[in-house]
Amino acid sequence: xxxxxxxxxxxxxxxxxxxxxxxxxxxxxxxxxxxxxxxxxxxxxxxxxxxxxxxxxxxxxxxxxxxxxxxxxxxxxxxxxxxxxxxxxxxxxxxxxxxxxxxxxxxxxxxxxxxxxxxxxxxxxxxxxxxxxxxxxxxxxxxxxxxxxxxxxxxxxxxxxxxxxxxxxxxxxxxxxxxxxxxxxxxxxxxxxxxxxxxxxxxx
Length: 204
Ligand SMILES: Nc1ncnc2c1ncn2[C@@H]1O[C@H](COP(=O)(O)OP(=O)(O)OP(=O)(O)O)[C@@H](O)[C@H]1O
Description:
Elements: E1 2-11, E2 14-24, E3 29-33, H1 40-47, E4 55-59, E5 65-68, H2 80-90, H3 99-102, H4 118-132, E6 136-140, H5 148-163, E7 168-172, E8 183-185
Parallel strand pairs: 3-7, 3-8, 5-6, 6-7
Antiparallel strand pairs: 1-2, 1-4
This protein binds adenosine-5'-triphosphate (ATP).
């Protein structure tokens, strides 16, 4: 479902990873590994179409990609339920009946997004993925701020709902999510020794 062929991606005009190739079949995940700064975020953004690849090709079904970044993208002045309905409306999706329970948000459903703790915001941000119904997920450190219980909750959703229904996920993470997935170490794809380059805007 996802094919990545010879992709080179850059940050600040400087190539960070070169000639990355892999494919992920429907129902499977791939874990991206590598030290800080190797280019995991840059690669995920490139695969998601948020920035162009310098070289190479990325293919997956049109309009099926979704990127979840370090930022949660929550509307602070909307309640938890209103946030979920907002995302459902934007994507023309129906709110899954069990979405609050799936991400342990039922007790928080009437709380304003801006009053949630960091981990609660993250659970709400991840619940967006359960609402929008996109098949190919690019996830950048999805479990940051989550406690052990919430990590397992998210991993269960990923395995039992998203992957089990034929979805795909490419996940940059430094922790063990407890899901069965091959790992790709990006270290050998490093484009060049750390070079002096230009800067561009910070990623959120
Ligand atoms: N605003 C910027 N302008 C130019 N280069 C940047 C900018 N932000 C990051 N970089 C550089 O781009 C390279 C790739 O960064 P990237 O965030 O993709 O790595 P990462 O593997 O996701 O790191 P981490 O594990 O720390 O999140 C790094 O060398 C980093 O220093």
